[in-house]
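Task card 7
Instruction: Convert sequence to structure tokens.
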Amino acid sequence: MIRFVIIIIFIVAGYFIFRHLIRMFKKEMYQGSEKGGCQYQNREHANAEEGYRQILGVAAKDDPATIRKKYKELLAKYHPDKVQHLGIEFQEMAERKTQAIMEAYEFFRKKYNL
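Output:
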């Protein structure tokens, strides 16, 4: 009987930990917009370069090596294959985020001839 109670406690604790991790991931994916959209969707109204810098999280003074490093970090973090165990919704968000990251890097690759 005690083993059964311990197993139930671990299952419930695991559920709440998993739920917390999913909420953290959602919060990170949906930061920046008042309407609940991703922060890269607002770049239409801002300067294109500034929007791309915001996507990659780099400052105006950062050099091309820093931009490349940040691009690789973000691509590894948001790659759809990395989040496929979290479900279709997260995989689709990750695909959109990955496309925006690749678009931003392509802009800087052309600008700095990387």
